[in-house]
Specification:
The protein is of the alpha/beta class. It contains five helices and seven strands. The mean pLDDT is 93.
């Protein structure tokens, strides 16, 4: 039996990434509903807010699981900036300008928070994941977002150069693994 997850996001890249990560007994469907991202400093709270907004705006089955996520790039030397404001930073300044803000310390991590709505309990659970690495000059054109700029720890290619590696070793992979383990225990 397949577990259906509706992923509330306008980003088809995130949906494809989730499909590549989760096993075949998960059916991930995109729920393209516009949500307003609150301006807060917690990716977990932002993901929860997106799930709540998607529940209000959608008409999915009463027993369906719904997920939404938020993620961010947290750069050590910038005290975690841009963090939850990563997408905003990209729109206003551009990811190509991130290197101008950095000195010699380019260590960073991507964090993801995936909020899961549990219809039988009318409850939301949040699963977080992270991936350590560093920011480098852009390399590769695979993936999406900051993938060409992120060189994961203990790897010699960026996520933009090696999207398959990202599927197995990303912040979203970590969070989805925790979500999958939780659902197995239900």
């Amino acid at each position: 039996m397949s577990t259906r997850l509706y992923f509330a996001t306008g980003n088809s890249g995130k949906v494809e990434h989730a499909r590549n990560i989760l096993p075949d007994n998960f059916e991930v469907k995109q729920l393209d509903i516009e949500t307003v991202e609150p301006s807060i400093d917690s990716i977990e709270e932002i993901a929860e807010s997106k799930v709540e907004q998607a529940l209000e705006k959608s008409d999915i089955e009463d027993d369906a699981f719904l997920i939404a996520d938020d993620s961010g790039l947290f750069i050590d030397s910038l005290n975690g900036f841009p963090g939850p404001q990563t997408a905003f930073f990209d729109r206003k300044v551009g990811k190509e300008n991130i290197m101008k803000l950095l000195d010699d310390d380019t260590k960073a991590e991507f964090r993801a928070a995936i909020a899961l709505y549990l219809p039988e309990r009318d409850d939301i659970r949040v699963f977080t994941g992270k991936a350590r690495g560093e920011i480098v000059e852009p390399r590769g054109d695979g993936g999406f977002g900051y993938d060409p700029l992120f060189l994961p720890k203990d790897h010699d290619r960026t996520w933009g150069e090696d999207p398959d590696y990202k599927d197995r070793n990303s912040h979203r992979h970590d969070a989805l693994g925790k979500l999958q383990a939780f659902l197995k225990g239900l």
